[in-house]
Amino acid sequence: MNYPEVFNIVDLTLEGLKKRLDSENTLLVQAETGYSEPAKFFFYPSASEDEISTFQNELGVRFPVDYKEFLLRHNGSNLFVHSYYGRGNELFSVDMIRLVYIDYDYKNLIPD
């Protein structure tokens, strides 16, 4: 299937975010209380088409088109990582999705 608008929205979103980051992949973020703190952004190297296909075939699942496009650009990322508290919002890599999928055994949680 070809969804050019999905590819475009993934690229536009990533490019738009990256343009706002400084040279150290940091963005000054204002909290609801009004103060601002820097947040770090980490983008990991891309997954291959083969790596994604292997995952999907092994587990019998399909990534949503937009997430697959994201993985082809960055095999995971960590967004809005606080300079003191750490963590952030993690977009899982193929390996992390495999780990979580197998650990939680989602197939057996879905009713027939």
Secondary-structure map:
Elements: H1 4-20, E1 26-30, E2 36-43, H2 49-59, H3 65-73, E3 77-82, E4 89-91, H4 94-104, H5 106-109
Antiparallel strand pairs: 1-2, 2-3, 3-4
Helix pairs in contact: 1-3
CATH-level-2 architecture: 3-Layer(aba) Sandwich
Average pLDDT level: 86
Name the helicity range. 40-55%
Shape: globular
Strand order in the largest sheet: 1-2-3-4
Q: Based on helices, strands and strand pairing, what is the structural class?
A: alpha+beta
Radius of gyration: 17 Å
Taken together, the total number of domains comes to 1
Low-confidence stretches: none
The termini sit apart by 28 Å
What is the CATH T-level topology? SMI1/KNR4-like
CATH class: Alpha Beta
- Number of helical runs? 5
How would you characterize the largest beta sheet?
A: 4 strands, antiparallel
Number of strands: 4
What is the N-to-C order of secondary-structure elements (H for helix, E for strand)? Answer: HEEHHEEHH
% residues in beta strands: 15-25%
Question: How would you characterize the overall build of this protein?
Answer:
With 112 residues, the chain is an alpha+beta fold. It has a single domain (4-109), classed as SMI1/KNR4-like (3-Layer(aba) Sandwich), CATH 3.40.1580. Helix content is 46%, strand content 20%. The protein is built from five helices and four strands, in the order αββααββαα. It has helices spanning 4-20, 49-59, 65-73, 94-104, 106-109; strands spanning 26-30, 36-43, 77-82, 89-91. The chain has a four-stranded antiparallel beta sheet, with no helix packed on it. α1 packs across α3 (65-73). The longest helix has 17 residues, at 4-20.
